[in-house]
Amino acid sequence: MKAILTAILFVIATSAHAGGGLANQLSGAWRGVGVQDGAESWLILLEVGAMEAQAAYPEIPCGAIWIYGPEFGGSLSAVEQLTYGKNVCIDGSMLKIESPSYSRIIVSWVDQCGIEIGFAVLHRDVSAYNNRSAELAETTLTQMSRPLGLSGRSGCVPLTS
Question: What are the φ/ψ torsions at residue 139 (nearest 5 degrees)?
Fold first, then answer.
């Protein structure tokens, strides 16, 4: 069942987005800090292209390709396919990518039930402004100001392999 879901998401992701839109606006190098379960944090280096993005998590270490899906409501969906570090990162996560401004991306990792399991704020990668402590503080404050995930109304039971 998991293989079927992954195949369906892959077909949707590759056919629904033919390049352009938000991905083109976000093209280039990005950097920020992600958080998971409120405590664990990790550095993200992201290179956004028209058809996919390349993500590196050097502190974990693992890396992935983000395969874009459809755009909706000013955000872009994607599926994260790990390229290395499969023993330490979650493969096949669904992503929601938002860009409230030219220089800022907000990324949410969601599970099969739509519940947010990871969150990050990224900025265009300008070495003079890179400061991991400040990036973590911004990510944490931004996450705290957002509405919580779907857990309160979700009756979803995650698919298992």
Answer: -60, -45
Selected from 2.40.128, 1.20.58, 2.60.40, 1.10.3470, the CATH number assigned to the domain covering 2-147 reads: 2.40.128
Cα(119)–Cα(87) distance, rounded to whole angstroms? 20
Residue pLDDT, tens place only, 35-50: 887 568 899 999 999 9
Q: Tell me the pTM.
A: 0.73
Domain ranges of the chain: 2-147
Residue 87: CB atoms within 10 Å? 7
Question: What CA–CA distance (Å, rounded) separates 93 from 59?
Answer: 19
Condensed to tens digits (0 to 9), the pLDDT of residues 41-82 reads 899 999 999 999 999 999 999 999 999 999 988 899 999 999
Q: How far apart are CA 149 and CA 116, in angstroms?
A: 5
Q: How far apart are CA 157 and CA 30, in angstroms?
A: 34
Tell me the C-alpha to C-alpha distance, in Å, between residue 106 and each of 95, 96, 136.
10, 8, 13
User: In sequence order, what DSSP letters do the residues of 88-147 get, joined into one string?
Assistant: TS-TT-EEEEEEEETTEEEEEEE-TTS-EEEEEEEEE--GGG--HHHHHHHHHHHHHTSP
